[in-house]
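Give me structure tokens for this 543-residue protein.
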Amino acid sequence: MLSAQNVSLQFGKRVLFDEVNISFSGNNCYGIIGANGAGKSTFLKILSGEKDPNTGSVSLESGKRMAVLKQEHFEFDEVSVLNTVLMGHKVLWDIMTQKDALYAKPDFSDEDGIKASELETEFAEMDGWNAEPEAASLLSGIGIEEKNHQKLMKELDGNQKVRVLLAQALFGAPDVLILDEPTNDLDLKTITWLEDFLLDFKNTVIVVSHDRHFLDTVCTHIVDIDFAKANLYTGNYSFWYQSSQLALRQKLNQNKKTEEKRKEMQAFIDRFSANASKSRQATARKKMLEKLNVEEIRPSSRKYPGIIFQAEREVGKQLLNITNLSANAEDGTPLFSGLNLEMNPGDKITVIAQNSLATTALYQILNGEREPDSGTFEFGQTITTGYLPNENEHYFDNNLSLIDWLRQYSEEKDEAYIRGFLGKMLFSGEESLKMSNVLSGGEKVRCMLSKMMMANANILMFDEPTNHLDLESITALNNSMLNFKESIIFTSHDHEITQTVANRVIELGPHGFIDSLKDYDEFMKDTGIEEQRKVIHGQEIAV
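Here you go.
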């Protein structure tokens, strides 16, 4: 349906793609992965026709329609929300605007009548009469309330605009749907809605995302951009990751016989195929995996950072006690109130809220960055803390090399010691001499993680730790949080981290809180919690 033939792209001496050949077709979802800078978003732009390659071509089957999630948030500012979605189906929208223009003419002629009749026939054949209800249903499903459907786009906030543009891309069931980071700025409930939508979507989806749970749920194939090529693999992200790691271990084990390696790989495929039968894409995914040839699985060249949190001492009986804690926004509006919490050894608590300002305010209070509006908190005498904030710009407002930047936070000043922590986060050799004020967002987060590892704390706090990180760093962070023996408080929009790490859920609201010992998925499915949620948020909406 959509294919790239001998596509090459080069910037100066840097070759991004070298004669890439790949096809996308059928009721399949292709997840595009690759290290930061590998060219994932650029590849989508080539596929969509937004960017031309140096050589090669991209072709879409005749008569097929492509839709792309737009990243330009101001393009439709003077258009109503509902019409912005309808404009996602360009042919249908053109017919609608032509009809309206004809019927608005004061001197409507016989010729106009014939043209209007032709347009009405096309409109009916495209099921145009159901277009507005379908667009409205999409908007409601993605969290845009009906009262906002007739507003101009410029009246919405940034998060709402992203949702409308996503609905625009989804509208009208395009034959090929291209999505670049569609889960950005979406809460976990809306991401789940999008997953369900794409699982029922009958055409081709091509998506770039750093959300592993999302990729695992919706993807039938993974396209790995590596060494200037696009390598296609059957299965979801977890299958690609685990199989590539197994292939790498086998490659390093030179003594194992080829037949033994083959049997080990085939056993892995069989095991994963059996697990796939329990997934929401059960039949199709299981059949594809069963047809997979073990020779197709190759080791990845990815480098994963070494994130290892080790507490210098175990926690005692008293960890953290919070009494009647409250925080307000700058205008006095309550962010959360009346929080009472006693943290226990082994607790790995995820803190959630409808308003992200509430969770950030809690971390800022616990780390001395702001005062509570009421209430108190106290850490136990054995407790030391490590903190990864949501915003870290002020930590890098200096002109220091990474070695000198990290040395600020270390009692041990030896350069080899400092380089060891930077090296774990893939800052080796000349990379460790980079200036701290020119780092990318992902590099800053990796520096902050080096700082956290160095602290050897026994309570770790993370406020949206996966922001700006690539899949490799997110996977390493997830594993480190799982392996940490002491206690954690964290907030993350990464479903996989939230579900696998947390053994306790705290939901904050302006009128109270909920404290549950369930894991995240169990907590969200518990209908008994819904009434409590309405009370703490002061309104009848669900998270």
